[in-house]
Amino acid sequence: MHILLVEDEPKSGDYLRRGLTESGFVVDWVQTGVDGLHNARTLDYKLIILDVMLPGMNGWDILRELRRTHDTPVLFLTARDEVEDRVKGLELGADDYLVKPFAYTELLARVRTLLRRGPSREVDLIEYDDVVLDVLRRKVTRAGQRIDLTAKEFALLHMLIRRPGEVLSRPQIASQVWDMNFDSDTNVVDVAVRRLRAKLDEGFEKKLLHTVWGMGYVFEVREGREVREVREERP
Known about the structure:
Rossmann fold, 5-stranded antiparallel β-sheet, elongated, transcription cis-regulatory region binding, WalR-like, two-component regulatory system, DNA-binding
């Protein structure tokens, strides 16, 4: 899930980016209002976390302009705690409003709630062959057997299972999962794929994660079924 973070305070921005990344999200962090509006308009985000007081353009104006063309869920995260500020943010079209200082666990809960109900939210379950990936509960099973993954392994599998049969290069994977430019001297992608393959394929006759030499990796059953996406009915 791709999130845009618009926060000009370096310590807060770095803290949020690290926390959300460790929670399995892909985060783009920008520090000016102009960059925030540009990214929000031109890239596909599932959620925007937006400060109010920003250089170049404030959060109110960003949201006002964004709502002309986009319905991406927006969470205001700001030190402005007056009732009038909260009302203004919601009236402009914000989906939630959280005041600094905040507990990260509360922020994460609000992020996941918005992703569940937002107009561009992810599907809840993705099934491919005998693998079931629960996006919101962050659980994976294969043939009914629970598979425990780290946050990065989950993000890697999520990327692969959404694009079955498509060969994904190491630079693509590094950019989406680690938010980094791929350096041919690093083996971070290969190590992560090897660990995921060990957990996902070992002990199963049918192998899903394949290496395409000189190109990258592909997730597929060579004679298998199509991927199915399932949206659960939640109370």
